[in-house]
Structure formats: structure tokens, C-alpha cells
Amino acid sequence: MKQASLILLVVVLGCGKTSPSESTSPPEHGLAKGDNVILLKDSTLAHDSVADTVLAKGTKLTVSRVDGDRIWTNVLSPVVLEGHRGRAKAAEFSPDGKFVVSGGGTIGQFGEAMLWDTESGEKFRDLEIQAGLQYLTDIAFDPRGLRIAAGSFPDRTIVVWDATDKSVSLSFTLSQYPSDITFSPDGSLLAVAESGYHPDSSKRFHGPCDVSIWNLATGEQTHALKGNRRDAHSVSFSRDGNSIASGGKDGSIHIWDANTGKQLKTWSTGSSVADVVFLPDGKSIASTGEAGNVQLWQIESGETESTFVFSGTKGTALASSFNGALIACADSHGIVRLWNAIDARLMLEFKAHDVVIQGLAFSQNGKRLVSASHDSRVKVWAIGTGAGLSGWVAADSLLKMID
Known about the structure:
The chain has one helix at residues 2-13, and strands spanning 37-41, 50-56, 59-66, 69-73, 79-82, 87-93, 99-106, 110-117, 123-126, 135-141, 147-153, 157-162, 168-173, 177-183, 189-195, 211-215, 220-225, 232-237, 243-248, 252-257, 263-268, 273-278, 284-289, 293-298, 304-309, 315-320, 326-331, 335-340, 346-351, 357-362, 368-373, 377-382, 399-401. By secondary structure, it is mainly beta.
């Protein structure tokens, strides 16, 4: 009788999707198929119960137990931003959180840059794409909300829009292809990680690639940060704007003085680095990549503070909440994981997209997370502040979402 109740509950709340008990075996990471339904094994539960628990502002999840399992529903239902015809490569929130900007396209065909209303999911407008901008590899909001910048492939162009009237205010050409861009905290500089990768192997550049720093008032390059032996994949400014971190294909991480361009520290992670982010204290950075983990590094020593391990896939994108409480990592299978940055506990794991995610960012208040995927979708997730994450599930349990 209890088993029958379980199947009925999943079918009704899962909008007709196959229940976990009827589906094929879930993948090794423990996520099964369904529609906003979570099956959480918990053999420590002593009795049946049903309750509503506040997950985040305006969001509830329903919990019921059958034979040691908990069913969680209505969890993290995202606002889906649909409109990209090609890949959605990157996305970021505006500083006030009211808008999301996303970029992507199809290599060799067209580029796309879009501005969305965060609450409704409606497209606010398309940003003007200059002739020749065939594929946007990254897009970013100025922390002051005054500008939007994007990098284009294969024309090696950076384009900057005025965030008020959405007109193109500046563009300049790089030595190599842009793989990652970021504004300085005061919005005066743009750092660009450059890469020699090209889908046509005959056009690839296999030598050292720089991180270039650009003055947005003049459009002039101020520094070329040298040290990567291969592609530079990622770049990040410290909160005070005085330091820059970069990571790349050769597995190295570099710390630079943003004012002088001098290299301050460098060390090897042992494998290709896909993304690096400064943590708010400015003393640590996080990295992810080919090794299939997230590592927190002490900048002064170059030693690891913590390692968050996940198996069977590689990390593709990182984000740190503004207050430093949460670290989010996306992987090549479309899964997003959130950790408590203080004690390294995995707080939440959910299937966000069907394919690789390369864009991931928190809103400034930490209550939302945006993901951009090669499936052409951008999704906004209401995750709360992170303060109540451990209260979402029973102690020592892991919440896993089925989308």
C-alpha cells in the first residue's frame, strides 16, 4: 500500500513523468529523471510524515516519506529564459538583479546578446550585434551597471555597450580569441583571458596566450599579463580591484598586480583549469577544471585549503556568492552543485541542464543563480541566501534535485 502511494504521488506531482521506481537506473551521481521531483534516501526516518517547508522566499517544497524515502517537490523551479537560437554561452545579473544579460550563438554563423527581465523571464531586448560578431564567448555586466561587454569569436573582438541606451560605445581587437572577460570592481578596466583554440585544428595557436587589460575610457591596452604556456581560460578581479587571478590549459594559476601588471604568485594545479574566481576576502581563490573537483587555494602559499570532489565529469564554470558563503560549480553534464564555503559541505546538487554549462553567476544579494548552457537555455534559480540551506533536508542528508 505504501509503495502504491509513492508511485501515485510521483506521477501526480511529476506532471505525468515516469516515477523513479519505473525509470531506468539513475546515473552514478544519483540523479534520476522526473519533473521537479526529488527522491532522497533516508533510512534514519522513524515514521511517516508530510509537511510544507519554506525553501526560499515565495517557494515551498512538499515532503513525504514512504519506506525510508523522502519525496521533495516544487524545488528550485527556475525561470527559463528562452530565445537563443544557438548555444547560450554566458550569463550574468545586472548589479540590481533586475536583469540578466546572456550571450552565445553558433560558431561560424551568428552571435547573440540578449537582455532579460529576471522576474518575468521575458526578453527585454536584443543587443546590437556588429557585422562579423559570429559567436559570443563571454558576456559581462559592469559592476556599476553602466556597461555590458562581450567577447567575439573568431574575429577576436571585444564589444562594449552602453547599458542605458544599449548602443555600442567601444570595440577593440585582441591578439587571440577571447575566452573569458571580467570588469574591475570600479568598472574602469576590462580583463580578457585569451585563447588560441579554434574548432579548425589548422587555425589553432599552440603558443603562450596572454591576459590583456584594457582601459575602457581610452580603449587602450594597459598590460599584457604573460606567463601562461597555453590558452588562458579564465580571469577574475579581487574585490578591491588590486589583484587579478588567471587559470588556463597548462594547469597553472597566476596572481597579478592589477596596477603594475607584475606577476605576484604562480603555481600548478596539475591539470587544465576551466575557471577561477576570487573569494571575497581576497586571500583565497577557487578553481575547477579537468580534475573534476573544486579547489580552494591560499594565495600567499599556493596551498589548497579545501577540495570539493565530484566524480565522472569535469568542472566547467564557477561562481562565488557576494558574501562568500556559497560556492557553485557547474559541470559538463549539466549538473550544478553548491557548497558551504566555510566547512566544505555539499549543500545542494541538481540537474540544471541536459548538456554542458559554461555560464554560472550569483545575483549580488546571493538569492538567485543563473546558468547558461549549450542547450540554448538560460535559467534563473531562486536559491535563497544560503543561510538556510542545511535546513532544507534532514541532518547529514544531501538534497538532490531531479529536473
